[in-house]
Design a protein that fits this description.
Largest sheet: 7 strands, mixed
Structural class: mainly beta
Mean pLDDT: 93
Distance between the termini: 40 Å
Helix content: under 10%
Oligomer: single chain
Number of helices: 0
Low-confidence stretches: none
Order of helices and strands: EEEEEEEEEEE
Length: 111
């Protein structure tokens, strides 16, 4: 069974950091491109960052310099390191790969 499970969300103050994890089962993450998306209340789901099979990355312009995507092949997990978080980063964050979506993890940035 193909499955992705996100974790690492929480409540953080503006300027804080969080590291999200996306653990895969049923397939190897290094064989596929994996993306992080987020959906804020009342908004459509939007791409945040993507790690392609060959190792290249894409990060949405507004997150460049603050968000970093990486992968641990041994743990079969993709991470999203988020620094200097802003209230507008509040959303449910999802990872996707091979057409499979995780259940999401809530990130709330608030003072």
């Amino acid at each position: 069974q193909l499955q992705l499970v996100e974790s690492g969300g929480g409540v953080v103050q503006p300027g804080g950091s969080l590291k999200l994890s996306c653990e895969a089962s049923g397939f190897s993450l290094d064989d596929y491109s994996i993306g992080w998306f987020r959906q804020a209340p009342g908004k459509e789901r939007a791409a945040v960052s993507c790690l392609h099979k060959g190792g290249s990355t894409f990060t949405a312009r507004s997150k460049k310099g603050r968000f970093t995507i990486s992968r641990d092949n041994v743990k079969n997990t993709v991470y999203l390191q988020m620094n200097d978080l802003k209230p507008e980063d509040t959303a449910v964050y999802y990872c996707e790969g091979l057409g499979v979506w995780g259940q999401g993890t809530q990130v709330t940035v608030s003072s």
